[in-house]
Amino acid sequence: MTLQQKYTERIEKALAKYPDKRSAVMPVLHIAQEEYGWVSPEAIIEVAEICDMDPTQVKSIAGFYTMYSKHPKGKYWLQVCTDLPCALRGADQFYQELLDYLGVEDHGTTTDGLFTAEHVMCLAACDKAPMLQCNFHYQESLNMEKMKSLIEEWRAEAQKK
Ligand code: FES
């Protein structure tokens, strides 16, 4: 089933908000990511067809924004800000410690498929560094002790589902 078939109502609603189909590309990309877990090459083609655009244009838009994942990801998508203001508050070291704790490389996913970690540019919470967003929810003023308990919480949550 295509995105268009599965999400007809949501897609029509997104398209109806704009005079031009192309303007709905971001909400439609969100729907694609929700469906596939990431913005895959196939998803790019589907979104391009829906929004009447060239796939390369859709790909460049998806590539620009950190809110769209360009790789398959785990259930918990950890995006750590390592931009300059956060770096000045220890974000690089925090991110490396997180990668070591999870046993993954940058952009890597744990073998149980639960966590994907990557570093991103400013998330507009510079005064609360180190910080990250997990599935778009902010976790601020972090240290590894706090991070480890969050990871255990999320692991326990995942086991319940
Ligand atoms: S630099 Fe990290 S949130 Fe702004």
Topology summary:
Blueprint: H1 3-6, H2 8-16, H3 25-36, H4 41-50, H5 55-64, E1 76-81, H6 84-87, H7 91-102, E2 115-120, E3 132-134, E4 137-139, H8 144-160
Parallel strand pairs: 1-2
Antiparallel strand pairs: 1-3, 3-4
Helix pairs in contact: 3-4, 4-5
The structure holds FE2/S2 (inorganic) cluster.
Structural commentary:
The chain is α+β, with helices and mostly antiparallel strands and 161 residues long. The protein has 2 domains: 62 residues, Arc Repressor Mutant, subunit A, CATH 1.10.10; 85 residues, Glutaredoxin, CATH 3.40.30. It contains 8 helices and 4 strands; from the N terminus they run αααααβααβββα. Strands 2-1-3-4 form a 4-stranded mixed β-sheet, covered by helices on one side. Strand 3 and strand 4 form a beta hairpin. Helix 3 packs antiparallel against helix 4 and helix 4 crosses helix 5. The longest helix is centred in the last third of the chain and has 17 residues. It is globular and about 50 Å long. The mean pLDDT is 96.
